[in-house]
Amino acid sequence: MKSLSVAASLLITGGYALAQTNPIIPVVPKTPWKVVLEEVVTIPDSLGTYPRLEELTHAPGSDDAFVLDQNGTIYRFDPYAANPTPQVFLDLNSAVPAGFRTGSQEGLRGLAFHPDFATPGTDGYRKFYTSHSRSAFTGIYFGDGVTPVIYGAPGGVDHDAYVAEWSVNPDGSVDTDSYREILLVGQPRADHNIGQIGFDPTAQPGEDDYGNLYITLGDGGGPNDPSNLAQNTSQPHGSILRVDPLRNGSDPFSLPDNPLRTSDSLTNARNLIYAYGVRNPHKFTVDPVTGNFIFSDIGQANIEEINILEPGANYGWDLREGTWTLNSSNVPGTLPPNHPTDSATYPVAQYDHDPENDGVNGSYAVAGGHVYRGSSVPELTGMYLFGDFGTNPGPIYAVDADDLTQRDDFTDIDQIFGGYLAPLVELTLNTEGDATDKTFLDIVKETNPFIPRTDLRFGIDAAGEIYILSKRDGKVRRISAVIGLLAGDANRDGIVDLLDLSLLASGFDGPGDWGSGDFNADGLVNLLDLSLLASNFGQTSIPQPAVGLIMLTMLSGFRRGA
């Protein structure tokens, strides 16, 4: 067994050393049931190697999937065709007038279609947006004569991060002449820069948040936020911004009623900031059922975070990492006694960099995912899926989205799901037609055998189905099935027992999903689901008629209106 002291155990990453510690002791359990991944399509190579798949998304009014190669190309394809064929939708290498730049954390980072993309007669009709990198000092392109809002790079510029608007022609092709840069943020270093962008899919026309674009920005890079940007709201770095991206007269965009806004100035960063105090919040999702905006924040020394976005919130970086303080030596410290009333907003789930407790600091980069709300795999309904893409087997984690709860008091952190803050599980994986359990790294190595990491990402299509991507093999995979999970196992722990009956009883005669007892996926928790639970109760250890009678008796006290 490997064993390293805190003083001796150093992980070298990104050119600097991170002290290894192990603040969370329990190991995340693996599911006794298995998730099956099916290959959907292979994206063409780029720059002489595998494409670096960053995101898969969809557009209003279309069933097509759009997948981003960080090297600059967006492809579209029908994910349910018998033999999907990826077609180039846009290549930023040729479409961006000058200076498109790729790198480890640079390139094409996000794609978002305006919610009115398919609504004729609206200002957002056929408009979409990209977040991407350009080399510094290669010109500014404003297309329609309106100059983008520009924020400089404190301490010197490495490159520039952009948000730009594009339009689509009636034939579905992109009008590259429509390219309009609306926001430029100078980046002092090559890492922790711009990430995903997107609109709130739950907002409806006429509501305050409809048509507002969320923009994720890291702290500008380097260890310990060397320019102290994440806690500085006079700069946009280390924040999640929110703007209305449509042109507003002579302004490239307009301002919603953001929580820190004090004026109408587009050059005052506070007016753009929705939340701040983050290190590298490069992935997010909005649960279409609850409306929760869930984002991941990549940690530095010890902790990876899952957060729920709150207006005006300060997520604590670089004074906090997860539910610990952080000093200049990257050693986690206990939160001060007054932390329940401090100004920091803490994560709703977290994990550390030694998940196997074997002294090896392997996991160090969280990739946020999505809440499953599709129809093909009802066993996963309501589960938030995310993963880690560092030098490890590429674990994919799951947690019931209802268990992502905002808390203030972490005095007894070990008592809050062992320090994880929510009951995480690691998914056991299979590939289609293969009964062998695999890690995601195993799966990717079947194509690219010499890689040390998966660089996994997640995607979601118009039907709510979830995809797993990698920057290492060009394959787009979809979660297609769950095997080995018995109907009746509401808490998904591998055993159908009284705990599952209690979950079914609490939601009986009402709407629900698998986690609340809807095992036949008809949207209701009723006697049909009870029958399924009874048929698997205790693995036939109790005679079925007796089990059914006991359950019906217990349920009588739970019926609505009783």
Describe this structure in words.
With 562 residues, the chain is mainly beta. Helices cover 8% and strands 32% of the residues. The strands form 8 sheets. Strands 3, 24, 25, 26, 27, 28, 29, 30 and 31 form a 9-stranded mixed sheet that branches. Strands 8-9-11-12-10 form a 5-stranded mixed sheet, with no helix packed on it. Strands 4-5-6-7 form a 4-stranded antiparallel sheet. Helix 5 crosses helix 6. It is globular. The termini are far apart. The N terminus and C terminus are likely disordered.
Q: Helix count, per DSSP? A: 6
**What's the Cα radius of gyration?**
24 Å
In what range is the share of β-strand residues? 25-35%
> What structural class results from the helix and strand content?
mainly beta
Shape assignment: globular
Helix amount, in percent? under 10%
Q: State the separation between the terminal residues, measured CA to CA.
A: 57 Å
What would you say about this model in short?
With 562 residues, the chain is mainly beta. The chain has 6 helices and 33 strands.
Blueprint (SSEs and pairs):
Blueprint: E1 10-13, E2 16-19, E3 30-42, E4 53-58, E5 65-69, E6 73-77, E7 87-91, H1 92-95, E8 108-113, E9 127-135, E10 149-151, E11 159-168, E12 174-187, E13 194-199, E14 213-217, E15 239-243, H2 269-272, E16 273-276, E17 283-286, E18 293-297, E19 303-308, E20 320-321, E21 324-326, E22 332-333, E23 349-352, E24 366-371, E25 383-388, E26 396-400, E27 425-431, E28 434-438, H3 440-445, E29 456-460, E30 466-470, E31 475-483, H4 498-506, E32 510-511, E33 524-525, H5 527-536, H6 544-555
Parallel strand pairs: 3-27, 10-12
Antiparallel strand pairs: 1-2, 3-31, 4-5, 5-6, 6-7, 8-9, 9-11, 11-12, 13-14, 14-15, 15-16, 17-18, 18-19, 19-23, 20-21, 21-22, 24-25, 25-26, 26-27, 27-28, 29-30, 30-31, 32-33
